[in-house]
Amino acid sequence: MLKRLLSRDTKEKVAQRAKDALDAAPAVAPASPAPEPALQLAPAAPPPVARRAKSMRDSDIKDEFGRSAEQLAAEAAKDFDIMGLAARVADMDERPDRPRKSETVATSSNGEFGVIGATPAKPAEPAPVAPAPAPVAAPTSAPASDSKAKRLRVRDGHIALPGSKPKAIDATLAARDAYWDKVGRTDPDYFGYPVCPELKGAPAWPTQTQAFRIVRTENSLIIASDGLSDPFAPFRGETIANGYGMEMYIEIPGWQSMDADLVRDSWAFKSIEQLARVCAFQKGLGDLLDEHGVMSVDLPTPCVPNGWVVSGYAEPAGALIDLPIPSGLAQIADMPLSRVRVVPITLIFPEELEDCVVGGPSERKALVNDLMTTGQGHKTDPKRSSLR
Predict the structure, then answer these.
(1) pTM of the predicted model, to two decimals?
(2) Which H helix or E strand runs over 336?
């Protein structure tokens, strides 16, 4: 114990003498910087100073006219009330757009057109109803589940905003249906296109609806255009009309039971498709038919039956446009805007076409007379023989 006290006293005296010597020494700048200690602790960082950050509000953002984002949003909401539009859609009657049934497109083997199939639609599931807290009286009106869904109609990526629906469209579709119902039974499936041919450079129809219907009679099958007479208002102040004023068709005896897929890939469909485009390119053939009567036209080889064309010898084949048909079927009744003809096409052999071209109107009339008197008439029978 005494030894530790003496040792401590000695250490204290040595430290005191060293301190006194340093205090007595003059202040002289060191020749070189003193070596840093082996471990130096950084002083504690001062507490952060709170800063006021200015917040950016919508009212602080201005456009070039001095309108704030709040004002722009209010104007946009006033001009376009999407909820109001969706609510009005529920009260609209859906237009029976062509093609009907479901709108599933089946592309054909050549990828050019497809059948818009009639797959059955799935019934909509009723919306869940929360249990009422207390019994209520039975409703006197139709239940809410019967109302249409308040949604905008979307077809092939296009949003159809609600608006006034022209009555002429419904009247035109109803008149066409009534006409063909007198002739035979229309298939529920229509021939259409995955992409409108107009977008690929084909002649434009009155609207972007380009379709063909199949009508089956007791002894024949008819493929008819469905859309050349759709109502439209041309530009430059022209009078509104029922499209190009006509629909075209081809009738083949013996095909009344043929499957729609086979019809779609047949020469018969290619021929009516080709001549419907001729009509669309000319914006209707009514004036020409009034001037010349029955007309003739060339047809490419894929548009005629096998064996009708001999490559390098007898080509091309052709068609006659607007052979006589029963007077009650020459036009569609009750069209809302203008007269609409129903024009048949009749395929003819290359030698028959040559006579029409070389002999002119007189030979064309003679061929028409021969077709009518032999019982062929306006129909195209792929098994018939040439009359020339």
Answers:
(1) 0.59
(2) none
